[in-house]
Design goal:
The complex is a heterodimer of chains A (about 250) and B (about 300). By secondary structure, chain A is mostly helical. Helix content of chain A is about 75%, strand content about 0%. In chain A, a hairpin with a 2-residue loop joins strand 1 (about 50) and strand 2. In chain B, a hairpin with a 2-residue loop joins strand 9 (about 205-210) and strand 10. Chain B has helices spanning about 45-50, 75-80, 95-105, 110-120, 135-150, 165-180, 195-200, 220-225, 270-280, 295-309; strands at about 5-15, 20-30, 35, 60-65, 65-70, 80-85, 155-160, 185-190, 205-210, 210-215, 225-235, 250, 260-265, 285-295. Chain B folds into 2 domains: about 5-225, 3-Layer(aba) Sandwich (Rossmann fold), CATH 3.40.50; about 225-295, Alpha-Beta Plaits (2-Layer Sandwich). Chain B is of the alpha/beta class. A 6-stranded mixed sheet of chain B has the order 6-7-8-3-9-10, with helices on both faces. Chain B has a 4-stranded antiparallel sheet with strand order 2-1-4-5. Chain B has a 4-stranded antiparallel sheet with strand order 12-13-11-14. The chains are: A mainly alpha (about 250), B alpha/beta (about 300). The interface of A and B includes residues 2, 5, 94, 95 and 97 of A.
Amino acid sequence: MNWAAISAIYVTEMHRFFRTLAQSFISPVISTSLYFVVFGAAIGSRIQEVEGVSYGAFIVPGLVMLSVITQAISNASFGIYFPKFLGTTYELLSAPLSFLEIVLGYVGAAATKALFIGVVILATASLFVDLQIQHPVAMVAFLVLTCVSFALMGFIIGIWAGNFEQLQLVPLLIITPLIFLGGSFYSISMLPPIWQTITLFNPVVYLISGFRWAFFGLADVPIGMSLVAIAGFTALCLAAIWWIFRSGWRIRS
Amino acid sequence: MAAIVDIRDLRKTYDGGFEALKGVNLSIEEGEIIALLGPNGAGKTTLISTICGITNVGTGSITVGGFDAVRDYRQARNLIGLVPQEINLEPFTKVIDTVRFSRGLFGKPRDEAYVEKVLRQLSLWDKRNARAMELSGGMKRRVLIAKALVHEPRILFLDEPTAGVDVELRKDMWDIVSELQAQGVTIILTTHYIEEAEAIADRVGVINKGELLLVEDKATLMARLGQKHLQIELQERIEAIPEALNPHGLELATDGQSLHYSYDTRGERTGITQLLNDIAAAGLVLRDIRTQESSLEEIFVSLVREDAA
């Protein structure tokens, strides 16, 4: 293992993050506060409780997931797309690096950034609502796995993207709708039966449900299924990345 | 000397079906400077990219320092530094940071003294805290060289190091290359400037349409393929070449005072003795004779033409 290389990539990527620390820090705080004002205060005054949890607290896991997923994807996709755009990938390809090391560096950094933002949002949320975490270990595990798996996905998007528009395309057209329709702001039991069934095809449902279970002990789908879903998604992303490097798709002619 | 890079029957066809390399064989000796000369699109960059791991190997084999470039890619790539043709640098990164990053990628521990040494050698030390976007084109190219050298490679690939570079900077680049050779670094450079190959290379490989047409010692190449020209200045003007001299294929200059004779140094006989005898017999009096070797450029043009024919 070329640990020095992994750390070189990781440190360089984190450096970019810290260079814009204020932005990285302030924007999630502001957007979380906005969500609390709109959803928590405005809608929360109509919906008192969801399955025994105050609506303000109920949306926290979904809010964290929303930001963490978006951040993990955008950081990872940009992280690898930028060198591609600049033409500096020659350096990665000509260095004594395996695909695993490149992925560990870039995905590790993107996941760390997303994790950082997730923690900031949780801290902000705890200022608005009384948060209790029933299963802290599971909560951390879900959070970390989500950061990693969606950073992997972002990495794939970054390799696939041929321009900046495409870089935004998948997050805007697929990811954001999946998150919003994945029960971030509601319990899927609130939906009509037919939509409940359709919703089960949305992988994000399993993530948010599992994450919410870690907080309140209540879930839309069994916790085991959530775990299987996220593990399966991570494995799928890893397999795709392994294939990409094996074939040199879009990076090595 | 042992071959530090050994390429056997290397072929590469791109996805579009374009055959960029058609069975290249090349042995590069440790410590030499070899110039790969060829027109645009000849396959020079593909060859370098394949050795360095940027392009997948089609068929054939490449060993670097005895290590297979595909199977033992880590050991092979450790020996190689690559300076790409395009100036690609992250615009916001400081010179010293990007150089440190390159060292890290090759798995070398931090060594500030060595980083400083490389930056000083390339006259970049004063610019170490400048961001890449603040540098001139020539300075950026130096940064690329620093990045390629900072992991202490034994082989340096320079892909068109002086493309679009002004004359002064080109001389600078040549000095850097000579200095590196003095330190024992093997240098492979591609160029389409013949004068560059002529000025700094020990050996020259001519590549065209994916084929390595020849690899020769620069001096041998010039001697072997060199057309030489003999210019004969006459004491007095003549209107036409005397008939007795017709078999020699002479050309008469427009001023009527000099004759021009081309001969091949490869030939067993150059025909010079016979020519001079015949000139004397024709009653012409000589004032001066000069010979001139053809430049690498002329050799190159004739090779590429032969290849096209």
